[in-house]
Amino acid sequence: AYATSDAGPPSPERGGERFENADSNKDGYLTKEEMQEAQNQRLDRMYNDSDTDKDGKLSKEELDQGRKAMREKMRTRFEKMNKAQ
């Protein structure tokens, strides 16, 4: 799986939390560098979760499984959002 926890469906509160986490200097704005750093952190988590044998490389199988896990995670989130409506 990509994520180490299921944060649930997207919400305004979650978006605000992401903003706060990405705003590293806490000035109320996101610079391009802050956005890039936040994206790099997410990519690192996805890569590390996909590298199941922890050899620092992704095989085609690991990449395929990681993609499958991400699709499943997104499907589950959308289902939760639909049920909440």
Low-confidence stretches: 1-10
| Annotation field: number of helices | 3
Global structural class: mainly alpha
How would you sum up the global shape? flat
Kindly state the number of beta strands.
0
Euclidean distance between termini CA atoms: 27 Å
Order of helices and strands: HHH
C-alpha Rg, in Å? 15 Å
Average pLDDT taken over every residue: 86
- Range of strand content: under 5%
Q: What profile does the largest beta sheet have?
A: none
Helix share of residues? 55-70%
Describe the structure in your own words.
It is a single chain. The chain has 85 residues and is an all-alpha fold. The protein contains 3 helices and no strands. The protein has helices spanning 12-22, 32-50, 60-84. The longest helix has 25 residues, at 60-84. Mean pLDDT is 86; it is low at 1-10.
Strand-helix topology:
Elements: H1 12-22, H2 32-50, H3 60-84
Helix pairs in contact: 2-3
